[in-house]
Design brief:
This protein is α+β, with helices and mostly antiparallel strands. Helix content is about 40%, strand content about 20%. It has one domain. The strands form 3 sheets. It has a 4-stranded mixed β-sheet with strand order 7-6-5-8. A two-stranded antiparallel ribbon has the order 1-4. A two-stranded antiparallel sheet has the order 2-3. A hairpin with a 5-residue loop joins strand 2 and strand 3. The chain starts with a helix and ends with a strand.
Length: about 140
């Protein structure tokens, strides 16, 4: 027989899964998205998520062209219950975020908090997405 804690954990995981339904089945690289007439990815819930071309252009001015295939979009802003900020990882992803936030010495991984999250989401609303994690 399962205890209350196990049921609560399963319920929480199910709720987190529902929060992440918008995430793409497969992310696309910047090179491919720049070549598409209507750049988009398909969410795991079947919805089409379109990218604004001006955001893609801005990102393409930050990332060297020979690395377009390495950058997968959207950039994930990882939220978990253990911290109050969003974790960002990945060399190219961090480079983009650091340039937008004006951070010169960009670490290998970083957490950003509400004011910076608002700025990132305001400037890159279609090329960033929240992903909710359970530990």
């Amino acid at each position: 027989m399962t205890n209350q804690s196990d049921r609560s954990d399963r319920l929480l995981k199910k709720q987190i899964f529902n929060l992440n339904r918008h995430l793409p089945r497969q992310r696309k690289n910047l090179k491919l998205l720049l070549e598409e007439d209507k750049p988009h990815v398909i969410g795991s819930d079947g919805t089409r998520h379109r990218f604004k071309r001006d955001e893609l252009k801005r990102i393409s001015e930050i990332v060297p062209e020979n690395q377009y295939q390495q950058l997968k979009l959207p950039i994930y802003l990882e939220i978990d219950s253990q911290t109050t900020g969003a974790r960002i990882s990945g060399k190219l992803e961090l480079k983009i975020i650091c340039i937008i936030l004006g951070i010169e010495d960009c670490p290998g991984e970083m957490y950003i908090y509400r004011p910076d999250l608002r700025l990132i989401r305001r400037q890159l609303p279609t090329t960033t997405q929240y992903i909710f994690l359970v530990r």
